[in-house]
Amino acid sequence: MAVKLNLDKLDFQIIQEMMENAEISYADLGKKLFVSGGTIHVRIKKLQELGVVKGTKLSVDLKLLGYDVIAFIGIFLEKSSLYDTVAKELRKIPEIVRLNYTTGNYSMFAEVVCKDIQQLRYILHDELQKIKGIERTETLISLEESFARNVLVIS
Amino acid sequence: MAVKLNLDKLDFQIIQEMMENAEISYADLGKKLFVSGGTIHVRIKKLQELGVVKGTKLSVDLKLLGYDVIAFIGIFLEKSSLYDTVAKELRKIPEIVRLNYTTGNYSMFAEVVCKDIQQLRYILHDELQKIKGIERTETLISLEESFARNVLVIS
DNA sequence: ATTGAAAGAGTCTCAGT
DNA sequence: ACTGAGACTCTTTCAAT
């Protein structure tokens, strides 16, 4: 349940703009949104205090860094009560960048970023097989990312 | 295939640090990595020119903004040649934040961020049903995100 | 709540090493 | 290739509205 935050259109505009580009200066963002740089500063400070804004992250080109393979792994557990212990083991594999506990076809759903198919194979056959509680897995290898973008927070 | 970039340990350390926190000053990051702020500056400029660093993005708390539901949608296509036209239609749905063309169980795999289960139902039953070429879909609703983190680029 | 201006902090350039 | 210092830009604070 979202707490009542009382954000207005300007707050959402700032969030939307900076989700895409957090480097823009307050003065420039103010110009774009027709307020002063000081107002942008006040709003961002408020959003940070509210916990809505958590920080900024560098956006990198993973392919250029040699991470050519993105895959998703659907995980079937022997018992769903094993969730926490399996999650703890999966966290130890650095190539697993995200793990969700899900309803539907799988019990858990993981995203993996790795250098090549050989490394993916190693993770699937050697690392995952060792973890007690995993019944079986299904792998989806991403052949292409059609798009990746931020959610639209402006009505 | 990754082009030969000739990045050294310091480059990777800078990337690793700033993937998590891009707000740190060059002086502070320099202290942490035992070089001058000027050196950090030179390296980041180089990484930007190489295209490895693409920019910085605001990190926000989606739950606080009222986006309580994250789901994954596996999509089966009638014919895999319909990929581009279906992708084009899916891009028009702003709640779909990511779309991958995949091998494995599904033809395409989407991630959705929405306000509540009612909105998810609307997307699944009204918006996706209208798109020609989708045979059927399978939905995984995230009950909990165990973790989400950046890939480890340091050897 | 917004603004503009002053103070403080960070970035960027460059000459020296 | 790294450093430190100066010039420049941006952030932050604050008094006025």
UniProtKB/TrEMBL annotation, chains A, B:
Name recorded for this polypeptide: Winged helix-turn-helix transcriptional regulator
GO molecular function, one term: sequence-specific DNA binding
HTH asnC-type domain segment(s): 7-68
Key word Methyltransferase present: no
Keyword annotations: DNA-binding, Transcription, Transcription regulation
PANTHER family, sorted: LEUCINE-RESPONSIVE REGULATORY PROTEIN (PTHR30154), TRANSCRIPTIONAL REGULATOR AZLB (PTHR30154:SF34)
Gene3D superfamilies xrefs: 3.30.70.920, Winged helix-like DNA-binding domain superfamily/Winged helix DNA-binding domain
Cellular component, GO, one term: cytosol
Top-rank taxon: Bacteria
GO biological process: response to amino acid
SUPFAM superfamilies xrefs: Dimeric alpha+beta barrel, Winged helix' DNA-binding domain
InterPro entries: AsnC-type_HTH_dom (IPR000485), Dimeric_a/b-barrel (IPR011008), Tscrpt_reg_AsnC-like (IPR019888), Tscrpt_reg_AsnC/Lrp_C (IPR019887), WH-like_DNA-bd_sf (IPR036388), WH_DNA-bd_sf (IPR036390)
